[in-house]
Amino acid sequence: MPLLMLLTLLSNMEEAFKRALATKGEKERMRAADEADRRRDAIIAEQGLDRVFDGNWQGCAGQFLLQWYSHSTHHQRLVLATKDGIVLAAPPQRVTVGREKAMQIVARLPATEATLLDPFSGAYETRMLLLRFRDGSWLRVDTEELRSDLHTYLLRQPLPGT
Q1: Per DSSP, what are the bridge partners of residue 131?
Q2: Which domain of life is it from (predicted)?
């Protein structure tokens, strides 16, 4: 724990030095980025996107979530988006090394049942995506990186109704 506190302190100091030594243009960009982060966070809280799912256990997302761990006790899923739907894979049990080798398909969701979407349509860099089911219920999916390959894939898809 003391190491974690030290690393946090060093990180905060580095950020303070960056801000203090930044040029006027860099400071303006940092202020704009901070404001965009605040707007994004406000939207997330306002729309309830800070939750794992929409909260309706009777909806498709709630029922899917209840079955989630019956497929695998591992908390992470590999999500693949295709034109035909969404595929989720996971190792059959909790593993720390070699989980990619042990991946098995645990769910296939046809495009008629669920779609993957970026709730911000690319306006903000986030790790968040939504798995939206046909009844309007949703499950939040967090990617390991900002603007993941899934985000890029979704941005290249035509908007619904176009």
Answers
A1: 116, 139
A2: Bacteria
What is the value of pTM for the model shown? Answer: 0.69
Residue 123 tokens read as 């306006």
Sign of CA dihedral 155, 88, 137, 112: positive
> Which residue from 98, 54, 90, 95 is spatially nearest to 70, judged by alpha carbons?
90
**Taking Cα atoms as reference points, which of 142, 116, 139, 141 lies closest to residue 61?**
139
Q: pLDDT digits over 58-76, tens only?
A: 999 999 988 877 776 666 7
Map out the domains of the chain as residue ranges: 2-46, 60-156
The residue written with tokens 């939207």 in the block is 43
Q: Is the dihedral of CA 66, 72, 78, 80 positive or negative?
A: negative
Instruction: Write the DSSP string, 42-109.
Output: HHHHHTTTTSSB-S-TTSHHHHHHHHHHHH-S-S--EEEEETTEEEEEE-SS--SSSTTTT-EEEEEE
